[in-house]
């Protein structure tokens, strides 16, 4: 599975509606409203690199109010939750 972190600039007055539209798309697992240079961050998960083109410029960028995106493709995922689960196998709490 390929994970992309998509930083999104939007029309500020439409952030909630735009976030909901993005979150409803297939392959988008989460959308965060954030402070800073960007307004939203979307987590996109696809089986193949080619699928990123369909989701990001093909769907996200075409949502009315999306002004621009900056995409970062993850090499590896490190998660405290995943590490705790791996070391807890077979142990009772």
Automatic annotation (TrEMBL):
Gene3D superfamilies, sorted: 3.30.70.920
Stored InterPro entries: Dimeric_a/b-barrel, Tscrpt_reg_AsnC/Lrp_C
Residue ranges of domain Transcription regulator AsnC/Lrp ligand binding in the record: 6-77
PANTHER family: BSR5907 PROTEIN
Name of this protein: Transcriptional regulator
Source organism: Streptomyces filamentosus (Streptomyces roseosporus)
